[in-house]
Amino acid sequence: MKSILNETIDLLADLEPGKRTMSDLPYGGFLVLEHDVPALLIYRKKPNDKATLRLARTGASYLIIGDSHFEYFRDFIKKLTAKMAERFGSFILVELYRGEPDSTSFIIKGPTNKLPASLETLSEELSAIDSRRYKVKLDAKISHTKDRQKPGDESLIDLDELKSAGGTLLGLELPPVYGNKSGKVYPLYFRMFRDRFAKAIQKTIYEFIRVQTTSNIHSYHTLGRRRIHEEVLKIDRQITEIQSRYEFLWLVAPVNIQALRKKFFETKFEEIDSYHYRLLPVDPDLLKRELYNLRIDEIDDPSLSHLYNEKREELDKELTMLKERGSKNFFYSSIRLYQGVPRNVLAEAKLILETIPENHEEIIEKTIDAHQFQKMAQAEFDFFKEQAPHYEGTVHIRNDVNIIMVSNGELYLPEDYKMTTDEAQALIQHEIGTHALTHFNGSQQTLSQLSAGFADYDATQEGIAVLSEFLGGGLTGNRLRILAGRVVAGEDLMNGADFKSVFHHLYTDYGFTKQRAFNITSRMFQGGGFLKDIIYLKGLVELRDYLGKGGDLKPLLAGKFALKHVDIINDLTQRELLNPPKIIPRYFKNEDFSTKLNAFKEGITLSKMI
Fold first, then answer.
1. 90 close to 212: Cβ distance less than 8 angstroms
2. CB 107 within 8 A of CB 143
3. Cβ neighbours of 507 (radius 10 Å)
4. Mapping DSSP to helix (H, G, I), strand (E, B) and coil, where does residue 139 land?
5. Cβ(405)–Cβ(389) below 8 Å
6. Phi, psi of 336, deg, nearest 5
7. 222/445: higher pLDDT
8. Sheet hosting strand 395-398, strand order edge to edge
9. Could you tell me the pTM of the whole model?
10. Which of 59-63, 67-71, 94-98 is the most confident on average?
11. Please, what is the Cα angle at 197 between 25 and 63, to 5 degrees?
12. What value, to the nearest 5°, has the Cα angle with vertex 208 and ends 203 and 210?
């Protein structure tokens, strides 16, 4: 066994900074060691105890001890401790084990006189894990004892020997409240338990590292997993590939919009024909089957597990809506997906419509057509190529689209679209400087979903896109009114109004031109009632609140994700699993950029942004 141990120790011969060691060990063991993290979770294999094994694997570094030749692992731990402590001044080991079936308490075993802050942090974080709603009251108890192992097990290592090597050992007994007495795990509760547990461990280890070691780790966020497992990358690619098989917005947009408009106007706003849609290129039920065959439940990194569970649920809702096109159920599903109109957003919308008059003369100024806009867009793509030479972007002018849209980084433009110079500048920053840019930045990340878009990313994206119009100097009163009109139309729809009522509310009460009133209304009623258009103003309000509380704009351009994901994205970035944005928009270089951005952060009323 001594020769085998010597062979294993060769793994640790050169703990190169910034690297990791991953290796099977003899006798059924396994090691993951981040060379820059002076901490290790330890778990001894037990029968019918996969849940505790998964909890151990949430650590950046962990050691799985096999079920035989315990002396080998004990000697290995001594050698590893000495080597890590020599580099960092100290090294902490935390052994995890499952408590008795009826236990509802975490038992924290450690030197309370030497690590009071670390143990108190662990106790507070573990006690805060939600359990009362499930009729379980969790608590955490700190025990000052030299027996850090599970009762009945051999001690992991002699504490005096460990101390002389520079190590500190904690024992942590886990109450198995996430399963029944036979060991069957409750999957949804276990997922929440695991996520909170992982954060508790990270905060505790960070407290130890900060006080007891020479490590330069500056945040507990960096103590998560520093490698994305190949199985996670496979799931990421699969979910993106499933999403790529259909264009959700394309498939809920009517193909007969010009005919609908013509009939509605000819009948003096009395008759609106039925919407017609493109044939579905996929079977939603078959795609759902593929989605739920993905083993997202086996992702042990809490941050990534959360992101992909959310995304699967969102795609499930979209696929259901594709089956429901043209029905009232589509509208109900739309409420679930976009979550209705918040009161504060509705108030901002009404204020905009009441204080900013419609500029009916603007149509006279429309001098730029689709082909002229195409040249402006190409100039913006060239600006991106200066920052990333391999960037590629294309503008497609089509006669079968009724709105400007970006899909997979490509810009689609109606053939008959005309605009003013200000509108063109705003659209450049909105569509290219935000949507195409974040698509590209996301494509440079390890996770393809940052290019396709994590769940609920739309509101944040559209908020940034509208802000870009303001920062780029192209946001007009009419444009802001359109966004506000969409919110009012969404509220009307939620209150049961029909097409004609919504149209007349915009046209008669708020003074929109008949073309704009129709465009807003027709978009709101596509599919059977589609609330997506409320997210432009909603996203802008949420973004203003976020930046006003100290948030930073630039990191939001690293890909397509929601504000609620910022902590997770920051976590993954600090763990060097994600990168900062590769390219940034042109408006960052404008002379008045800081002045305008600061005004926005300070809570400027939206109606004052023109």
1. yes
2. yes
3. 19
4. strand
5. no
6. -65, -40
7. 445
8. 395-398, 410-414, 405-407
9. 0.84
10. 94-98
11. 10
12. 90
- Hunting for tokens 């330890």 — which residue is that? 42
Residue 6 vs residue 589, higher pLDDT: 589
Question: How many Cα atoms are found within 13 Å in the side-chain-facing hemisphere of 594?
Answer: 1
Structure tokens at 572: 């993954």
Under DSSP, the state recorded for 17 is T
Q: What angle do CA 413, 415, 418 make, to 5 degrees?
A: 80
The β-bridge relationship of strands 91-98 and 39-44 is parallel
Structure token digits, residue 35:
């060379």
pLDDT at 443: 95
Which residues share a beta bridge with 411? 395, 406
Q: Which has more pLDDT, 400 or 227?
A: 227
Tens digits of residue pLDDT in 255-280: 899 899 999 999 999 999 999 999 99
Strand partners, 418: 369
Q: What is the Cα–Cα distance from 392 to 374, expressed in whole angstroms?
A: 14
Look at residue 365 in the predicted model and tell me its pLDDT. 58
- The two tokens of residue 374 are 């195409």
Give yes or no for a contact between 347 and 487, defined as CB atoms under 8 angstroms apart: no
Q: Per residue in 359-376, pLDDT tens? A: 876 655 568 888 888 889
Q: Which residues contact 411 (CB under 8 A, 6 or more apart)?
A: 377, 393, 394, 395, 396, 404, 405, 431, 432, 436
Angle at 111 between CA 82 and CA 32, to 5 degrees: 40
Dist. CA 470–CA 537, nearest whole Å? 13
**Structure token pair of residue 16:** 């190169």
User: Cα separation of 420 and 416, whole Å?
Assistant: 14
Residue 153 near residue 78, CB atoms below 8 Å: no
Show Cβ contacts of residue 268 under 8 Å, excluding neighbours closer than 6 positions.
none
CB atoms within 10 A of CB 1: 11
Helix axes 514-525 and 257-266, enclosed angle (nearest 10) = 130
**Euclidean distance between CA atoms 537 and 457, whole angstroms:** 14
| Rounded-to-integer distance, Cα 533 and Cα 527, Å | 13
Strands 29-34 and 405-407: unpaired
In this structure, what token pair is assigned to residue 255? 């193909």
As given in the structure block, the two tokens for residue 579 are: 């990168």
Query: How far is residue 367's CA from residue 38's CA, in Å, rounded to a whole number?
Result: 64
Region 44-49: mean pLDDT is: 92
Closest by CA to 275, choosing from 482, 523, 517, is 523
In angstroms, the CA 482 to CA 485 distance is 5
What is the reported pLDDT for 440?
A: 95
* Chain position carrying tokens 């049961």: 496
- List phi, psi (to 5°) of 474: -115, 5
Give yes or no for a contact between 444 and 497, defined as CB atoms under 8 angstroms apart: no
